[in-house]
């Protein structure tokens, strides 16, 4: 199954009333569960040799991804007025369109709603992430080329800026 087909399946499940879908073939096993707004995808590649007897299902423990330790904000009141730009998917965060280019945005830059602020690579697809808010970039919360999780804050934006 190709990345585009998996993404189409996720979109279909998100828009349908289905809560869970499991697909098994000789080549892979795909399980998608819908929780609130975010679907969870688990893909296992099986060997192409002889059929494998599947053990009883066991709940998989969530995988923790190390993220940089957040630095404390100067004042709690000031940070509460900031808006977070969050990752809409799991993938690898990139601040530039390619290694030879400038960053999409830097601390102190003004952004407008709809402006591209970074790229997240997921399954060899590069997805431009756009700001949902206008304001000034106060802080970049993720290092370039770092893995990010769904709904992980990427930037802090001061909407008054």
UniProtKB/TrEMBL annotation:
Pathway participation: Lipid metabolism; fatty acid biosynthesis
Biological function: This protein is a component of the acetyl coenzyme A carboxylase complex; first, biotin carboxylase catalyzes the carboxylation of the carrier protein and then the transcarboxylase transfers the carboxyl group to form malonyl-CoA.
Highest taxon listed in the record's lineage: Bacteria
Protein name: Biotin carboxyl carrier protein of acetyl-CoA carboxylase
Gene Ontology terms describing biological process: fatty acid biosynthetic process
CC annotations in GO: acetyl-CoA carboxylase complex
UniProt entry tagged with the keyword Acyltransferase: no
Residue span(s) of domain Lipoyl-binding: 82-158
Pfam families named among the record's database cross-references: Biotin_lipoyl
Keywords assigned: Biotin, Fatty acid biosynthesis, Fatty acid metabolism, Lipid biosynthesis, Lipid metabolism
GO molecular function, one term: acetyl-CoA carboxylase activity
InterPro entries for the chain: AcCoA_biotinCC, Biotin_BS, Biotin_Carboxyl_Carrier/Decarb, Biotin_lipoyl, Single_hybrid_motif
Organism: Mariniradius saccharolyticus AK6
């Amino acid at each position: 199954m190709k990345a585009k087909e998996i993404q189409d399946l996720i979109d279909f499940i998100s828009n349908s009333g289905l809560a869970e879908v499991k697909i098994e073939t000789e080549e892979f096993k795909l399980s998608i569960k819908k929780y609130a707004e975010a679907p969870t995808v688990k893909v296992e590649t099986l060997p192409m040799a002889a059929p494998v007897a599947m053990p009883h299902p066991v709940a998989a423990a969530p995988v923790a991804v190390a993220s940089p330790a957040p630095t404390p904000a100067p004042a709690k009141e000031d940070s509460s007025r900031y808006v977070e730009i969050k990752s809409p998917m799991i993938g690898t965060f990139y601040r530039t369109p390619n290694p030879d280019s400038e960053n999409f945005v830097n601390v102190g830059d003004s952004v407008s709603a709809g402006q591209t602020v970074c790229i997240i690579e997921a399954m060899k697809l590069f997805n431009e992430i756009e700001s949902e808010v206008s304001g000034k970039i106060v802080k970049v919360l993720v290092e370039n080329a770092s893995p990010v999780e769904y709904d992980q804050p990427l930037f802090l934006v001061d909407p008054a800026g």
